[in-house]
Amino acid sequence: MTSITRGRGLHASLQSWSNPRVYHQLRSQLQPVCVRSSLLFSTSASSQQSRRPSPSSPSSSVPSTSIVTAPSKIEVNAPSSTFPADIVDPAPVSPSTGLPGKLKRFVEIGRIYLTFYKTGLKNVYRNYRVSIPLRKVLGLPVYLPVSPPRTISQNNAPSTRKESVLGRAQFQLVCRSARDVRRMIPFTMILIVCGEFTPLIVPIFGSAITPATCRVPSQVEKERVSATKRKMAALDVHVTASKDASLNLLRSSSEEQLHLLAKQFADPVWAASADPASVLRAAAVFGLAKRHDRTAGTLLAGIIYRPRLARHIEYLSIDDEMIHAGGGVRALNAAEVRIAVEERGGVDVSASAKDRKQAENVERRWLEQWLSIRGGGPKSKKQ
Q1: pLDDT higher for 221 or 200?
Q2: How far apart are CA 157 and CA 16, in angstroms?
Q3: Domain residues of the chain, as ranges?
Q4: What phi, psi does 191 have (nearest 5°)?
């Protein structure tokens, strides 16, 4: 009897599910869920705009770039997708907060950083995809992320460079996307293994494995301090080894230091004929070597550091010409000015500035003077 009763109940349930009225009610209830799911996983611009995260959501402080487009030839500033996304830590807890509240905040911070890193890796992929047509124009391999320039032009003649067909923003997109892709695989492995604990592991390796789009402000500032110490140590040795010990190279704003960087360290003829120790010091100043006195550094100078320095000098020469052709330093935004200054060895020129506005003014004047010395722009007025 029990089995017969259960069979009748199942038959009644099937009849109610086959009722057209019940079917339409269920369809109307499930359809909004499907629509929300499609919007959640869509990467189109319209769907991203329609999905508004709540202010309390951890990912709401890290905006992502869903679409990356190739810049035009007249643009001088690289796309914003080549920079890290904005990140805001949650409000600090009060000292009286218990252990569960503190642990909850640490977990929230881990989730924010995890979202930040995922956004950065997505932008690395998108930037490289957009740069592929530009890489083909330069004759670079598509699936091997080498950075331009790969060949050194004769006498730095602009007409012999393939890069002259690109604008500065396009050239920077190709360079930065290739650099980030080379770091993408090891960084992704750490992110998969460590998850929310990735911010604790990244400082161990630093920028060696971290794409530029995944570097948090504290990491960038720490690397800037390390680069300043490395540069000053190399210049200190250079002053000691120089016959003229009165050279004022240890002051970042000195004309002697700027001329040394622009006219000697960035000179392709000097780089080709300088002794191995001097080449290693120049590489340390430009951030191409971790130390100016590293073990076996002089032995590896001819194999590793001299070619690396020559390519960097060629890169700076190309970038100088593109800045001048694109309207000069005034056409660059503040972030591009800082990057350009640091790539030329001026990592510490604005260290004594009181605020970011003053630092930007100092960096702009320094870059204008660099271009003037190198012959790539008008002389800046001293202020």
Answers
A1: 221
A2: 83
A3: 81-214, 216-376
A4: -65, -40
Q: How far apart are the first and last CA of the chain?
A: 102
Which are the contacts of 164, defined by CB distance < 8 A and separation ≥ 6?
Answer: 158, 321
- Residue 138 pLDDT exceeds 70: yes
Taking 60 as the threshold, does the pLDDT of residue 376 lie above it? no
pLDDT of residue 48: 35
| Residues contacting 201, CB < 8 A, separation 6+ | 190, 194
Residue whose entry in the numeric block shows the structure tokens 């359809």:
31
Main-chain phi, psi angles of 353, to 5 degrees: -70, 145
- The mean per-residue pLDDT over the stretch 58-73 comes to 63
Reported as a single tens digit per residue, the pLDDT across 324-354 is 999 999 999 999 999 999 999 999 999 889 9
Spatial separation of the C-alpha atoms in residues 187 and 76, rounded to whole Å: 29
> Largest Cα–Cα distance of the chain, in whole Å?
111
Contact, 49 vs 57, CB < 8 A? no
Half-sphere exposure of 22 (CA within 13 A, CB side): 7
SS3 breakdown of the chain: % helix, strand, coil, rounded to 5?
A: 65, 0, 35
**Rounded distance, CA 221 to CA 235, Å?**
21
Length of the chain: 383
pLDDT band for position 293 (cuts 50, 70, 90): confident
- Residue 94: both structure tokens together: 């009060």
Residue 88 and residue 109: Cα distance in Å, rounded?
9
Helix ranges (H only) for the chain are: 2-17, 20-41, 45-50, 99-138, 168-194, 198-205, 217-241, 255-259, 268-273, 276-285, 297-300, 306-325, 334-343, 356-374
- Residue 51 pLDDT > 60: no
Instruction: Return the closest-CA partner of residue 370 out of 266, 250, 279, 268.
Output: 266
Cα gap 182→194, rounded to integer Å = 20
Pairwise pLDDT comparison (294 vs 170), residue with the higher score:
170
Query: Residue 200: what pLDDT?
Result: 84
Provide the whole-model pTM: 0.77
Residue listed under structure tokens 């960035």: 266
- Helix extents (H) in 18-167: 20-41, 45-50, 99-138
